[in-house]
Amino acid sequence: MEGQVSFGRFSGGTLSSHDQVARALGVDILAGTFPPGAKLPPEAEILARFGISRTVLREAFKTLTAKGLIVSKTRVGTTVLDSAHWNFFDADILEWKISQGFDLAFVRDLADIRRSIEATGAASAAERRSSADIAEMRRCIERMNAATANAHAFALADLDFHKAVGRASGNVLIRSLAAVIETALLASFRMSSPVREADEHEASVAGHHRIVDAIEAGDAEGAAAAMRAIIGHGVARIERGINAPVV
């Protein structure tokens, strides 16, 4: 359907058997089907549910353990850990959380993190950017501007823009948090893409122009402010979508 984002994570890709099992169990855990402190079903029950081998299940459990979701002990079983142990900076956990539907409080939490991280990144980019960085950002904006009726194309161009700012910052830690940015953008576009309204599309493109203009001018404070503004604009769009009356 035109104007609707219908993909999972932007990066896509085919999941292996153990990744599919890890995802299914991970979604169940995040949804509260298996709350913190609960035991996962016996191994035989899980094997029957998915029609998999013990080797596949073992690999799935390794994945969930590494993400801080579960702990397995001999003669005790597999227990769901408290959410304080869950790594919400993990790309998979973020995607599993968003896949369950929109939690406005969580979207706002993501936005708070982005305002802190990406505003700092934009300010650093204003001090460290190269001409190649600026050219890449402007190419991304050109793609966004051209995507007047294609939400998927707009989303990919927007993500590439924010990644380009991260690279221009020269901060390896900011670049490593791309999963947070990707998931936040995905949440935004699933709820309400700017391409669905001409005014929203124009405002989003203009907001990104202000970011790169400030970065190119070496205006660290202006770049940070423009980045915070564009993130706030996205959150406001989600809130309007959630609060819109059902027709």
UniProtKB/TrEMBL annotation:
<keyword id="KW-0805">Transcription regulation</keyword>
<dbReference type="InterPro" id="IPR008920">
    <property type="entry name" value="TF_FadR/GntR_C"/>
</dbReference>
<dbReference type="InterPro" id="IPR011711">
    <property type="entry name" value="GntR_C"/>
</dbReference>
<dbReference type="InterPro" id="IPR036390">
    <property type="entry name" value="WH_DNA-bd_sf"/>
</dbReference>
<dbReference type="Pfam" id="PF00392">
    <property type="entry name" value="GntR"/>
</dbReference>
<dbReference type="Pfam" id="PF07729">
    <property type="entry name" value="FCD"/>
</dbReference>
<protein>
    <submittedName>
        <fullName>FadR family transcriptional regulator</fullName>
    </submittedName>
</protein>
<keyword id="KW-0238">DNA-binding</keyword>
<feature type="domain" description="HTH gntR-type">
    <location>
        <begin position="15"/>
        <end position="83"/>
    </location>
</feature>
<dbReference type="InterPro" id="IPR000524">
    <property type="entry name" value="Tscrpt_reg_HTH_GntR"/>
</dbReference>
<dbReference type="GO" id="GO:0003677">
    <property type="term" value="F:DNA binding"/>
</dbReference>
<dbReference type="GO" id="GO:0003700">
    <property type="term" value="F:DNA-binding transcription factor activity"/>
</dbReference>
<keyword id="KW-0804">Transcription</keyword>
<dbReference type="InterPro" id="IPR036388">
    <property type="entry name" value="WH-like_DNA-bd_sf"/>
</dbReference>
